[in-house]
């Protein structure tokens, strides 16, 4: 079964993200909790990458796991930047827009993968 451009784009972005997380994990110094977060991210993204590549039947569950984990990371980053200098209003607007895009992507990608899986099963 051929994968759609959307799925290939997700696979490439996941691979880049895994490499980025590995870079941070091995080549920078950070508090231990950030190393743990990087390890968890690498594991979740790696499993999702393999599931997407093989279009495994439980890929949707891993899509949800990856998006939820990414959402947790986004919340962590927002909390860490609250003390940063700058306009609180601008930061709030930016975060609202970013979360809206994030949720739309999550829903659309999940529906797309479900559609690809169902067409694969019907063939």
Q: What is the structure about, briefly put?
A:
The protein is mainly α and 123 residues long. The chain is built from four helices and no strands.
Question: What keyword list fits this structure?
Answer:
single chain; 123 residues; mainly alpha
Describe this structure in words.
The protein has 123 residues and is mostly helical. 85% of the residues lie in helices and 0% in strands. It contains four helices and no strands. Helix 1 runs antiparallel to helix 2, helix 2 runs antiparallel to helix 3 and helix 3 runs antiparallel to helix 4. It is globular. The model has no long low-confidence stretch (mean pLDDT 88).
- Residue-averaged pLDDT: 88
Bulk shape: globular
- The N- to C-terminal Cα distance equals 9 Å
The profile of the biggest β sheet is:
none
Percentage of residues in helical conformation: over 70%
Number of helices: 4
Structural class by sheet pairing and helices? mainly alpha
Strands, count:
0
Q: Low-confidence parts, pLDDT < 50 over ≥5 residues?
A: none
Strand content: under 5%
Any idea what the radius of gyration is?
17 Å
Order of helices and strands: HHHH
């Amino acid at each position: 079964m051929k994968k759609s451009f959307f799925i290939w784009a997700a696979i490439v972005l996941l691979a880049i993200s895994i490499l980025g997380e590995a870079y941070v994990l091995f080549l920078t110094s950070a508090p231990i909790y950030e190393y743990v977060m990087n390890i968890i991210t690498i594991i979740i993204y790696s499993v999702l990458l393999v599931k997407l590549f093989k279009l495994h039947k439980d890929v949707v569950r891993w899509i949800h796991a990856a998006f939820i984990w990414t959402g947790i990371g986004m919340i962590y980053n927002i909390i860490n930047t609250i003390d940063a200098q700058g306009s609180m209003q601008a930061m709030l607007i930016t975060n609202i827009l970013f979360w809206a895009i994030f949720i739309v992507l999550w829903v659309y990608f999940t529906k797309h993968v479900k559609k690809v899986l169902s067409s694969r099963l019907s063939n």
